[in-house]
Design a protein that fits this description.
Blueprint (H helix, E strand, L loop, with lengths): L6 E4 L4 E4 L25 H7 L4 H4 L2 H12 L9 H4 L9 H4 L3 E5 L16 H15 L3 E5 L18 H8 L4 E2 L6 H8 L6 E3 L7 H5 L2 H8 L4 E4 L22 E3 L1 H15 L5 E5 L8 H8 L4 E4 L4 H7 L14 H13 L3 E3 L3 E5 L8 E5 L8 E5 L1 H11 L4 E5 L12 H14 L4 E4 L3 H9 L7 E2 L4 H7 L5 H4 L10
Parallel strand pairs: 3-4, 3-7, 4-6, 5-6, 7-8, 9-10, 9-15, 10-11, 15-16, 16-17
Antiparallel strand pairs: 1-2, 12-13, 12-14
Helix pairs in contact: 3-11, 6-7, 13-14, 15-16, 16-17
């Protein structure tokens, strides 16, 4: 935060202020991206492409320049980071590299379908389009692979067939659908593909060998193509045959534009944000967000907490929480996280009031009470209006915001007010030039529900992958890709 401000850790038992003498600009920058300890110098264009800063793909050249310049400032701080994250991009391949070549593209087309097999949200299909169109325009022969759901063997309701009409419409070309993902019939379809043609393979998870990452299965998939493009960020945290295994048999193996953009924002912008930088973390359990909270405490200036996890923090401070969700074995952790925030000068805000209910149901009786006055037999299901105002006031001071997790049980309209208020506030701030990053999962559903998804700076297509990246973990589907060429200057 700015040097003139006072950094405060908000507690419901007492308010403790600690003034920091250092400015936000001098705050230690993040640890996710670091240059190799050899301190080699890189050309700017090489570095930005390697990290996924393709102006044609991300559409935010200022962000790219800002982050790449920050990345270059990390010389000598360790071996992890750029060495593992600077990956070759599909944008680095020339037309000659692609024309007439069979390209195995792993996309994440795992979209929700209703009981009539109609697509209810095509976000992930639309997100895959830029990479596929780029390959079409460069005369490649596209072999498209994806999973859908969690099938146990061949399961008709998880077939990718319902995706073909929408995918064909978005691409402006008729997509051919295979009935399998390996085998002689698939090989015949691949052989007949024209330049610019698209073949959609059947659900790769119909084979148990996919998730087991069995080399022979990966080899069969790879045998269909000349090179590999991974654009499936949503599965990049898993070492599966179609995401990691095929890279052992296909060269080059590069990142698609969507994967690039995810790295731009979730690694780049979060590692070196324009400050003040706020993180909003919600969800039902502290245990599922421990890594994210601890990682963000190293980077952010303001941390807002909501969702069911707040009641564990309340109880850790000695407050009565009624029948609200509490993780009894995480009380000490909650206390330590509050202490860590204070020690690091991070403003950690817990809701001061909550919406409580007499049962967990959409038609429950409800009322608003101070967070310190939850009666027995009642449970907290949303943040209250005073908390929304406090959160909004804090967000008004920021320049970068990342949000992961709802503020309440937003599936029930009565308890969706807090989550929807955050979505609307971020939309407002986006319009004022604040970088807003929606970090996957339920937060994405929330901004879609409110109708403000299109104004956010970035909406992640990955749930688990987003969380792991925010925690600073390496993603197997990214690590396996070819390293970007490092050019000495």
């Amino acid at each position: 935060m700015a040097s003139a401000t006072t950094s405060t850790t908000f507690s419901l038992l007492k308010t403790t202020a600690s003034t920091t003498s250092s400015s936000s600009a001098s705050r230690p920058s993040a640890s996710l991206i670091r240059l190799p300890s050899t301190r080699r110098h890189l050309k700017s264009s090489t570095l930005t492409h390697g990290l996924g800063f393709s102006s044609a793909a991300s559409g935010d050249s200022l962000l790219s320049l800002h982050v790449s310049s920050k990345v270059r400032s990390f010389k000598g701080k360790g071996s992890r980071g750029v060495v593992s994250m600077a990956k070759k991009s599909v944008g680095d391949l020339s037309a000659a590299d692609l024309k007439g070549k069979k390209v195995f593209v792993r996309a994440d087309l795992n979209v929700p379908l209703d009981d009539n097999q109609n697509i209810t949200d095509d976000t992930r299909i639309r997100a895959a389009v830029p990479t596929i169109k780029h390959l079409i325009q460069n005369g490649a022969k596209i072999i498209l692979s994806s999973h859908l759901g969690r099938p146990k063997g061949v399961t008709p309701k998880f077939s990718l067939a319902p995706l073909v009409p929408r995918l064909s419409e978005l691409l402006g070309t008729q997509v051919v659908k295979a009935d399998d993902c390996i085998g002689p019939e698939v090989e015949k379809l691949v052989a007949s593909l024209p330049e610019g043609g698209v073949l959609l393979l059947e659900n790769v998870r119909f084979y148990k060998e996919e998730e087991k990452n069995e080399p022979e299965f990966a080899k069969k998939l790879a045998s269909l193509a000349d090179l590999f493009v991974n654009d499936a960020f949503g599965t990049a945290h898993r070492a599966h045959a179609s995401t990691e295994g095929v890279t052992k048999f296909l060269k080059p193996s590069v990142a698609g534009f969507l994967l690039q953009k995810e790295l731009d924002y979730l690694v780049g912008a979060v590692s070196s944000p324009k400050r003040p930088f706020a993180a909003i973390v919600g969800g039902s359990k502290v245990s599922s967000k421990i890594g994210v909270i601890e990682s963000l405490l190293e980077k952010c200036d303001i941390l807002l907490l909501g969702g069911g996890m707040i009641f564990t923090f309340y109880k850790a401070q000695g407050l009565s929480v009624g029948s609200s969700l509490v993780e009894e074995d995480k009380l000490d952790l909650a206390t330590s996280l509050l202490a860590k925030a204070k020690a690091k000068g991070v403003s950690l805000l817990l809701p001061t009031d909550v919406v409580i209910a007499d049962k967990f149901a959409p038609d429950a009786n409800s009322k608003i009470v101070p967070a310190s006055a939850i009666p027995d037999g009642w449970m907290g299901l949303d943040v209250g209006p005073d908390s929304i105002k406090t959160f909004n006031d804090a967000l008004d001071t920021t320049q970068t915001i990342i949000w992961n997790g709802p503020m309440g049980v937003f599936e029930f309209d009565k308890f969706a007010v807090g989550t929807e208020a955050i979505a609307k506030k971020l939309a407002e701030l986006s319009g004022k030039g604040v970088t807003t990053i929606i970090g996957g999962g339920d937060s994405v559903a929330a901004v879609e529900k409110v109708g403000v998804a299109n104004v956010m700076s970035h909406i992640s297509t990955g749930g688990g992958a987003s969380l792991e990246l925010l925690e600073g973990k390496e993603l197997p589907g990214v690590i396996a890709l070819d390293e970007a060429t490092l050019v000495a200057v």
